[in-house]
Amino acid sequence: MYFIANWKMFGVLNSLNSIHKVVKFLKNFKKNNSLKIIYCPPNTLIRPMTKKLKDTYIDVGAQNCHEHDKFGAFTGSVNSIMLKNVGAKYVIIGHSENRQAGESDKLINLKIKSAIKSGLKVIFCIGETLQQKRKKITKQVLNKQIGFGLNKIKIKNNIILAYEPVWSIGTGVIPKKNELFETINFIKKKINKCKVLYGGSVNPKNINDLKSIVNIDGYLIGGASQDPKKFIDIIKKTYS
Ligand code: PEP
Considering its fold, how many domains does the chain have in total? Predict the structure, then answer.
């Protein structure tokens, strides 16, 4: 099971002290081979976090990257080569907060290609808005996001898919169990080589419900991942 922490635009150097609790917990946690933890902090914390997590099983990833896989005159941007260079092994691409800010499927496709070329694994986010859900076009939306996003990309173990309904992110609302099972199934049938995670308001209170949905391969966790106690609780409950 994957537990991916998306810290979003939160965290300064002092915030790294909190991950010590997670490292300590993992040392005493009965080792489960399927457990995979990836922290995605802001770019400013990738290097120091990588150093802190040396000799642990926790990997570090970034939250986005520029689409160019060469250096260039793009003020304020960071590309996948740079992220790899400071220790990132993964990068989140296509997060709804960036799609809402104007990231198109075509741009997402270029970003994924550049990340793979640089040797990063991609956590590719897809999901429908509330309006699209109400119109009952979730499957068409996901179909389009997957089709364009992964266009001409050879999928091996280089892509992890994260289904994140936009209406569930940061709202405390999660999909109904049967709906989530069906959507994950739909995604898996479409691209059978990927692990498929769920993201959207995952917390210690709803993890018991979520873990009963058997086709989910893990979770992308935003808000709750910034609190080590909640993050540990989610992991513990998943395996209990
Ligand atoms: C996210 O940012 O990807 C996310 C799922 O956030 P939250 O867990 O806070 O809903």
Answer: 1
Ligand 1 neighbourhood includes 172 CB (under 6 angstroms): no
Q: What is the mean pLDDT of residues 44-63?
A: 96
- 172 alpha carbon to ligand 1 midpoint, in Å? 10
pTM check: above 0.90: yes
CA 171 to chain centre: 17
Please report the DSSP string for 27-81 in residue order. Answer: HHSPP-TT-EEEEE--GGGHHHHHHHTTTSS-EEEES--BS-SS--S-TT--BHH
Q: Give the distance (Å) from ligand 1 centre to CA of residue 45.
A: 19
Residue range(s) defining the domain that contains residue 90: 2-239
Alpha helices in the chain (DSSP H): 19-28, 46-52, 80-85, 96-100, 105-117, 130-134, 138-149, 177-190, 207-211, 228-239
Closest CA to 122 of 202, 201, 52, 65: 65
Residue 33, domain CATH: 3.20.20.70
pLDDT digits (tens, 9 = 90+) for 144-169: 999 999 999 998 889 999 999 999 99
Q: Give the Cα separation of 48 and 52 in Å (integer).
A: 6
